[in-house]
Amino acid sequence: MDNTIKKNMLDLQFQKGMLIASSAVVIAFTYIIGIIVGLIANQIDIRQNALLTFAFSVMFLAPCMYFFLRSRKQMNLILLILKDMQLKG
């Protein structure tokens, strides 16, 4: 395969990883802001629902963190491959 095609394919994979990582960050911060607003507006009573709020937050934020970290790892790998291609090429 031509180097230009390989670089374009890697660029598309990098953009996909960037989209997933940024979406995970936006979703997580939106959730955190929603929890803060709920606490300030007294819609969430932390004294009665602390365990439930914590459990739901972990279930919601854990996948966001997983996708973010996996995408960052993939993006770093792509950058290393691109650097290697430039050195050889």
How would you describe this structure to a colleague?
This protein is mainly alpha-helical. It is rod-shaped. The chain is built from 2 helices and no strands. The longest helix is centred in the last third of the chain and has 43 residues, at 46-88. 91% of the residues lie in helices and 0% in strands. The chain has helices at residues 3-40, 46-88. It has a domain at 1-46. Helix 1 runs antiparallel to helix 2 (46-88). The mean pLDDT is 91.
Structural class: mainly alpha
- Summarize the amount of helix as a percent range: over 70%
Radius of gyration: 20 Å
Report the sheet-strand fraction.
under 5%
Please tally the helical runs, counting DSSP H or I stretches of 4 or more residues: 2
- Helices and strands, in N-to-C order? HH
What composes the largest sheet? none
The counted number of beta strands is 0
Low-confidence stretches: none
Mean pLDDT: 91
CA-to-CA gap between the ends? 13 Å
- Assign an overall shape: rod-shaped
